[in-house]
Structure formats: C-alpha cells, structure tokens
Specification:
508 residues, 19 helices, 15 strands, globular, disordered N terminus
Length: 508
C-alpha cells in the first residue's frame, strides 16, 4: 500500500504560499460516474443513516482529509483511507465505508498523512491563508481544544446537519469537552482512536494460574470486586526477584507487579475511580478542585505508598530509556517485556492488543479498577483522543455536515462491529474467556471518561501530579494548592472568556 505523506511544514514558506504547496500528491478513488459508483452499490441494508435530505449530489467534489502518518503508530488506528481494498478486517471496513459514502453523495475522498507535530501547523496555516484545501484535519485533543477556542475549528453549531444526539457520537467523551454549554470538540465513531486509546489492564494469565495468591481478575470483575485494593494486592503478590540480588530490573528479567508508563498508569488510578481534578456543575462550568478533593488525595497517597515498594512498578521511561527512538519505541519495548512474562499487569491502551499476538502465555483484559465495591461503574480513561476537525475556512458547510454525519453513521454500521470482532478473536484469548472478555470490553468502551486536568490542561495539573509520584513525594495538597491561581486564571477563566466570545459569534 502506498500511503501519501505531507512533507515537513516549513512555516516561513507557508506564510507566503499557503499549505497547498506543501503537500504531496493526493490518494484519489475513482472519478464521478466511474469506479466509485460501482464499488459498493449502496444496496446493503444499514441500521444507521444520517438525517440528511435524500438524493444529494455533490457532483464529484473532492473531500480532502489530512491525518497522522499510520506508519508511525502500531497500537492505534489513524488511517482514513486506503489506495485499494485491503482484504478483510478493520481496514477493509474503513475502505468500504468510504466507497459507500462516495457512491451515495458523489464525492471523491483524497487523503494525506504527516507527522503528529505537523498537524497543528497545518490547520494554523490553512486558516491564516484563508485556504479551503482540507475539509478535515486530524489533531490530538490537547491541540484540537485550543485551536477550537481560537476559532480555527468550525463550530459544530454552525455546520448544517450535525446532530450530536445521534447514536454515532461518543456521548461521554463529548460531554467532557462541553464547557458552559458549548461543544468544543465532538467525537463520532469515525474516530477509531477514541476506542483504541481507551486505557485498560492486561494481565498475564500464566502468572495468575501459577500463583495461588493471585486471584483471577475476571472472577473479581464478575463479582463486582475489581477494586484499587485488589489491584494493588495482586500486583504486589506477583513481584519476583529472579536472581535474588535484592534489586528489580528489566535487564535482569525480574517480574514486576505493573508494567506501564507513568503518564498512562497514574491518571488511570484516579479516573477509573470516578474522580477528576476538574469538576463541572450542571451548567458545564469547570472548577479546579484537585487540591481539596479528599478522595483524589487519598488515591494519590495510596499510589505513592505502592510505588515505593521495590518491584511494584516497571516504569517504561526508566527501564527502557536506552531503546533507540524514544516515545513509541520505548512503549513498545515495555509491551514486549510484558509479553515475555515480565509482569502481572500491563496498564495500557486497548490498541496494544495488536502488539501481543506473539505472547506465549494467555492474557486477559479488564477495565481500570474502581475505587471500591460501592462504586457502580467501571470508568475507562481515554487518552489523546485524536480527532478530525474542520478548519473554519471550509467553504461548503452543507457538504461538510453531510459527510461528517455519513462518516459517523457508516462507521457505526461497518467499522465498529468489525473492530469488536477483531478485538475478540485474537488467537491469544482463550475460547473459554471470549465471553468474559466481551463483557469486559463492553464495560471499557461503554464508560469512557476524560479529566480535563489530565488532558487539555495536563501541563499544569497532571504533570504536577506525575512529577510528585515519580519522586514518591506525597505532599499533594501543598503542591496542588500552589498551582491553584495559575490553573484558575490561565486555564479555566481564559477558556471561559474564549467560549463566551465563540457563543456570541454563533448567536448563542
């Protein structure tokens, strides 16, 4: 498959010539009236259909989409389209979805890819040059949010046909990004990354079977007893110093309780417990409460206590710091160590199941542990949340709204079912665990949650907490109080000011 990529953005040149001169050739799929008309036929029965007028014909208009380079990521799905039918599986479903939409509305999808750090510049230059090149650009949530507040992203309230109450919108996540009654970001099922980036707990079934002191997490989950206390208890019971030298290291093949990255593991402990650093009232007004949230402080103190135990935590950024490439390369090395039996738990994203195909031992998947047995819901932290947003300079808003809704509906018809089938049928999930895994995945995907303080405002709030946990410093009240004024003024109040202006601009 020949994926098309944009070249590195050169800001000085972009100011002069606009983004259109900075991209490679586009991947096109047929011409109006030719092959795209016959690829899918539009005859399949569909459960979901967008609420748009019938018989729309956009007369072969191009619909250009800019996304992140799929070759850079192994544990998530960022592909928007493919040059040819990929065969079976999720990619085939994505391909069929796009051909179906092309047929229904007489458009031509054209897709390009670039590096993650190029996306923010791309939308800035698009808007600054008043270009209408891309109809959708993929951004990571922490960059999409400020771009939306700055007016670079088309407000959803101004796009015809967009209806956030449709079943293909991911309600829990969208509610997190609704502030003061304004939908800053809106995810649909087209955003496969929202599912692939749901944080879960993988566990090594071999270690569970070989250790009488370790309960099967599936049993605890079914009994409603999969809690923080049990998570810590099991992790500590799994620790094993292989060579007995009193130290724990991946280089010595020791067995850890938990293998993860601090920025993936730590927030999962409080988000899974139904706790956030930022709370919102009924009007959607955010407030910073971390410093006075006794439940949150208690969770962080308990986590610090366990992090202080030798062998409890294999920190990716420490144990695999020598892996060339950093970032994803180090993260993949941590997954590989887990696959070799290096720990009981791997706290990571659902997408990492793709990296466990060669794991010799069986593994299971459960949601993040809840706070205690009284907690009714298992919450799943969603990280990054890469999303396609529309630049505010798109001219044809009618076509934009139709295609956004069509992508959501057809993703729910075709892509989401295929994703669940693939997730459930990897050879390493034992037949006897398929149904338990299905129930577990339902819990994970059905209760996505985000904490604004660890996503869009992570530099101020989350990173403060992570730094303290890394240092085993439990003076959380003092540290979180110290950043109160900064968070309230630079994060919350500034956001509310911008949203007030945006609401005025759209007539709300």
């Amino acid at each position: 498959m020949n994926r098309k990529k944009i070249i590195s953005l050169l800001i000085a040149t972009a100011v002069l010539v606009g983004t259109s001169a900075l991209v490679s050739c586009k991947t096109e799929h047929g011409k109006p009236g030719e092959s795209t008309k016959n690829t899918d036929g539009g005859s399949d029965e569909r459960q979901y259909r967008p609420d748009v007028p019938e018989g729309l014909d956009f007369k072969g208009a191009n619909f250009d989409v800019l996304g992140m380079d799929p070759e850079l990521y192994q544990s998530t799905i960022v592909e928007f389209d493919f040059d040819k039918a990929p065969g079976e599986g999720i990619n085939s479903a994505i391909y069929k979805r796009n051909r179906r939409i092309e047929h229904d509305y007489n458009i031509v999808f054209r897709s390009e890819y670039g590096a993650i750090d190029e996306m923010s510049d791309a939308i800035s230059e698009e808007v600054r040059a008043d270009e209408d090149t891309y109809k959708l650009i993929m951004l990571i949530s922490r960059e999409a949010f400020p771009h939306s507040l700055q007016g670079d992203v088309m407000p959803y309230q101004t796009i015809p046909h967009v209806n956030l109450d449709q079943p293909w919108y991911i309600k829990n996540v969208n509610d997190s990004f609704s502030i003061y009654g304004y939908n800053v970001l809106a995810y649909t099922d087209e955003c496969m990354n929202a599912y692939m980036q749901s944080v879960c707990v993988f566990f090594n079934m071999g270690i569970v079977k070989d250790n009488a002191n370790i309960d099967n997490p599936y049993d605890l989950l079914e009994a409603g007893k999969w809690t923080l206390d049990d998570f810590y208890r099991l992790a500590n019971n799994a620790i094993y110093d292989v060579n007995g030298n009193g130290t724990y290291s991946a280089a010595e093949n020791d067995i850890f309780g938990v293998i993860s990255e601090g920025d993936a593991f730590y927030p999962g402990m409080w988000v899974g417990s139904g706790t956030t650093t930022i709370e919102k009232d009924r009007r959607g007004m955010p407030s910073y409460t971390a410093y006075s949230n006794e439940k949150l402080i208690g969770i962080l103190e308990k986590l610090t206590e366990n992090l202080a135990k030798d062998g409890f935590f294999c920190q990716t950024w420490v144990e695999f710091s020598n892996v060339v490439g950093g970032g994803d390369a180090q993260r993949n090395a941590a997954v590989e160590y887990f696959a070799r039996g290096g720990g009981l738990f791997r706290v990571g994203t659902i997408g990492q199941i793709q990296l466990l195909r060669h794991m010799e031992a069986d593994f299971g998947i459960v949601p993040l542990p809840k706070y205690d047995e009284a907690q009714q819901t298992y919450y799943s932290r969603m990280v990054d949340g890469w999303i396609h947003v529309a630049p505010s300079t798109v001219r044809d808003r009618n076509m934009l709204g139709v295609i956004i809704e069509a992508l959501g509906a057809e993703s729910k018809n075709l892509v989401i079912p295929e994703f669940f089938d693939v997730a459930l049928n990897y050879k390493l999930i034992r037949d006897e665990d398929i149904e338990r895994t299905r129930k577990s995945l339902d819990l994970i995907f059905g209760n996505a949650a985000m904490d604004l303080g660890e996503t869009i405002w992570q530099n101020n709030i989350r990173n403060t907490i992570i730094s303290m946990l890394d240092q085993k410093d439990n003076n959380f009240v003092s540290a979180l109080t110290a950043i109160k004024d900064t968070v309230e003024e630079k994060c919350i109040n500034e956001t509310l000011r911008q949203i007030t202006e945006l609401k005025k601009a759209v007539g709300e």
